[in-house]
Design goal:
It is found in: Cell membrane. Its main location: membrane. The chain has six domains: about 90 residues, Cadherins (Immunoglobulin-like, Sandwich); about 100 residues, Sandwich (Immunoglobulin-like); about 100 residues, Cadherins (Immunoglobulin-like); about 100 residues, Immunoglobulin-like; about 100 residues, Cadherins (Immunoglobulin-like, Sandwich), CATH 2.60.40; about 100 residues, Immunoglobulin-like (Sandwich), CATH 2.60.40. It is built from nine helices and 53 strands. It has a four-stranded mixed beta sheet, with no helix packed on it. Helix 5 crosses helix 9.
Length: about 800
């Protein structure tokens, strides 16, 4: 029986040797008890015993039968079960049991061969318990009578070594040996002439003895019948017949026909055939026709079970003479066995970060057929991720050839097809389902590049304003996302500690009430982190916009809302409708429409006299002033914003209707001012008249100076008065080039105790009052017509003003 083909497995690491170049060899006697020591495999493989368990060492046999067992703790290789050499290797001269020691992490293997030594555990056995010979009494001395040799399942010296007759017989001896073609024979040799009349029958034993220690023997009984003359024994046409038969030959097929010839006639020439199969080949697949010698199949043959069958055919004539020939039936293989794929190692699931070249599976392919029918090749279905790599003999590795991505493909179905080279070829396939395990290679991704959330000011603490959301393409803990506020914030971004984010849901809360006027917007960075190792994170900017609410009333800037008396605006009685009396200035800290202000006249001494512009807050005369109008008017202006509900504030104004400026000398705010408003008007008018006279005189003097020569001017008037003028005016006067009148501005308030003059820059050459002055001028100050520069020494103070006494002196000089 042919030895089973053995293959070694392979390691996944390409840089590490896959296997020893020479196998590890042991020997053990057959019939050894279970647990008998074969050898220390860990020591002979140069492996520490601890690695056997750590690397999950195991034994792999091609036929799947575990004849040996590995003790991982000690590394000892022991017999697993009783070993019968004759059952495992039949009559083979050598009997070797081969298997592989497979280790993982990294994948590595060692070939181990155990030679099974024969012991003398079988006795010789004859095919028949008794043999009868019909021998004519006229047989010549030295005639030979062939016998079936004894069979011994043991081999070598334990097989049959000698034959003997017991008890010793004077008529016959035994002869044995091997012919030139290697066939062994056993024959009885006639040593003394037979005499039927003296002894018609005789019996003795033929003993076969093997060479074991102690020796074993087998016996068959020989019965001799002495016959009258039959002097020709049958003779086969061939001593040895050889025939080839296809293993798929059907039942009943004729294998061959043997033929023997007997020259005798009559009954002595009638030949019958019978056969016996060699010992150990029980359940014969053949039968022979006793008359024709035709050998047929009783069942199909199997090349994989037995490649040859040996038959011993005996031809016997009617006189009792016989002859024996050998028939060797050689079974020819046909492609009737599909390849087999046996997986030695398979890694699944496979981490998605496995490098290209990672070994996924190790398997071997085999075909029980022979020749081309047993040559196997392997192929993969269309694959871009995996490939097959021949390892050793008929071992193959399934390896990765490109990077894996679980998020793209979580599972691969890989089909390996094995095909032999027969005609037609037979195929078999094996499917590997390779699951890809997740590694943390994807950071969370927010659903938006940034988030904008809104909250109204004066909000309730811990109010929910929105939520952020991030997804992770990984699975399991690698995809579990938690949210937190990032510790680092850009210095230029407005930020406050009022925001909080729920770590599980990503909901964003405002922890305290906000004030739009203090914080209009805030930016925070929210971080999404997965639970992988190491964790991956992503950041997103969350902008919180505070929405304004109408929680601030308008603030009046002018007139100033202080506790002192309200300022009085001076209105000439000659003012026409539309004259600008004053302007209310207010602001609102809110924004948007909450800060849109409108102005309304709430109360007035004479509501028909004044009007307030709703948008600008300007207070103007609705109609011209009449004599029936009161001199002093009090107004209350309502400033209201556009919020819902609206908020408001009030501004108080006082207006004085003046006919002249004579009353300017009287200090404002005294009791007389309130009791005698006519006196103040008189003073104002007088002051205006005198200022006008001075202006005309100055204009005349200026014109005269322009017409006269410089020397005459010095002689007529002198330049002493110019010393008291400002430096620029003195130089202009000396040069006769003073082009413009020098103007003053009067500021009168009811709240001040003195009226003051303020020096202004020179105006244009026109002597007519400016239009803006006629229209009423600024609300805070009333501008009066320019007057000529006085010759009297009037020195303004640091603020550029002159006192009322100086102005009075000026007016009446």
């Amino acid at each position: 029986m042919a030895m089973a083909r053995q293959v070694l497995c392979v390691c996944a690491l390409l840089s590490v040797p896959l296997a020893r170049s020479q196998p590890i060899r042991y020997s053990v006697a057959e019939e050894a008890d279970s647990g008998s020591l074969v050898g220390n495999l860990a020591q002979d493989a140069a492996l520490p015993p601890a690695q056997l368990s750590a690397r999950r060492a195991r034994l792999l046999a091609e036929d799947g039968r575990q004849h040996f067992r590995l003790d991982r703790a000690s590394g000892r290789l022991v017999v697993a079960d009783r070993l019968d050499r004759e059952q495992l290797c039949a009559q083979s001269d050598t009997c070797t049991l081969a298997f592989e020691l497979l280790l993982a992490d990294p994948l590595q293997f060692f070939r181990v061969e155990v030679a099974l030594h024969d012991i003398n555990d079988h006795s010789p056995v004859f095919p028949e318990e008794s043999v009868t010979f019909d021998i004519p009494e006229t047989s010549d001395l030295g005639s030979r009578f062939p016998l079936e040799r004894a069979w011994d399942l043991d081999i070598g010296s334990n097989s049959v070594q000698a034959y003997s007759i017991s008890p010793e017989n004077e008529y016959f001896s035994v002869s044995y040996g091997s012919r030139s073609n290697g066939d062994k024979y056993v024959e009885l040799v006639l040593e003394k002439p037979l005499d039927r009349e003296e002894q018609a029958e005789m019996d003795f034993s033929l003993i076969a003895v093997d060479g074991g220690s102690p020796p074993r023997s087998g016996t068959t009984q020989i019965h001799i019948v002495v016959l009258d003359v039959n002097d020709n024994a049958p003779v086969f046409t061939q001593d040895r017949y050889t025939v080839q038969v296809l293993e798929n030959a059907p039942k009943g097929s004729v294998v061959l026909t043997v033929q023997a010839i007997d020259r005798d006639a009559g009954v002595n020439g009638d030949i019958s055939y019978q056969f016996r199969q060699a010992v150990g080949q029980s359940d014969s697949a053949f039968e022979i026709d006793p008359t024709s010698g035709e050998i047929k199949l009783t069942k199909p043959l199997d090349f994989e079970a037995a490649e040859t069958h040996e038959l011993s055919v005996r031809a016997r004539d009617g006189g009792g003479l016989s002859a024996i020939c050998k028939v060797l039936v050689e079974v020819q293989d046909v492609n009737d066995n599909a390849p087999e794929l046996v997986v030695s190692s398979f890694s699944s699931p496979l981490p998605e970060n496995s490098a290209p070249g990672t070994v996924v599976a190790l398997f071997t392919v085999r075909d029980r057929d022979a020749g081309a029918n047993g040559k196997v090749s392997c192929a993969l279905d269309d694959q871009l991720v995996f490939s097959l790599r021949p390892a050793y003999k008929n071992y193959y590795e399934l390896v990765t050839v490109s990077a894996l991505d679980r998020e793209e493909t979580a599972q691969y179905i890989v089909t390996v097809t094995a095909a032999d080279a027969g005609s037609p070829p037979l195929t078999s396939s094996h499917t590997f389902t390779v699951a890809i395990s997740d590694v943390n290679d994807n950071a969370p991704v927010f659903t938006q590049s940034s988030y904008t959330m809104y909250v109204r000011e004066n909000n309730v603490p811990s109010v929910l304003v929105g939520a952020v959301s991030a997804a992770d393409a990984d699975v399991g803990l690698n995809a579990k996302v938690t949210y937190s506020l990032s510790a680092g914030q850009a210095a230029e971004r407005p930020w406050c500690s009022c925001l909080s984010v729920n770590s599980e849901s990503g909901q964003v809360f405002v922890l305290r009430a906000l004030d739009y006027e203090q914080l209009k917007q805030s930016e925070v960075v929210v971080s999404a982190s997965d639970a992988g190792s190491p964790p991956l994170r992503a950041n997103v900017t969350v902008r919180l916009l505070v929405l304004d609410e109408n929680d601030n009333a308008p603030l009046v800037l002018y007139p100033a809302p202080d506790s002192g008396p309200a300022s009085s605006e001076l209105v000439p009685v000659s003012a026409e409708a539309g004259y600008l009396v004053s302007k209310v200035v207010a602001v609102d800290a809110d924004s948007g429409q909450n800060s849109w202000l409108s102005y309304h006249l709430l109360r007035a001494t004479d509501p028909g006299l004044f009007a307030v512009a709703a948008q600008s807050g300007e207070v103007r005369l609705r109609r011209p002033v009449t004599d029936r109008d009161s001199v002093k008017h009090k107004l209350v202006v309502l400033v209201r914003d556009n919020g819902r509900p609206p908020l408001s504030a009030t501004a108080a104004l006082s207006a004085l209707l003046l006919k002249d400026f004579s009353d300017l000398r009287q200090p404002h705010g005294s009791p007389a001012t309130d009791d005698q408003p006519g006196s103040l008007t008189t003073y104002l008018i007088l002051a205006l008249v005198f200022v006008s006279l001075l202006f005309l005189a100055s204009t005349a003097a200026f014109v005269a100076r322009r017409l006269c020569k410089r020397k005459e001017l010095k002689a007529a008037h002198g330049l002493d008065g110019a010393d008291n003028l400002p430096s620029g005016l003195a130089e202009a006067a000396a040069a006769g080039t003073l082009p413009h009148p020098y103007c003053y501005e009067i500021s009168l308030t009811t709240g001040s105790g003195n009226s003051e003059f303020k020096f202004l820059k020179p105006f244009g050459p026109s002597l007519t009052p400016q239009p803006w002055a006629m229209a009423g001028g600024p609300s805070e100050e009333q501008v009066f017509p320019c007057v000529p520069v006085p010759t009297e020494d009037v020195t303004p103070d640091d603020a550029g003003t002159v006192s009322a006494e100086q102005f009075h002196r000026l007016s009446f000089n």
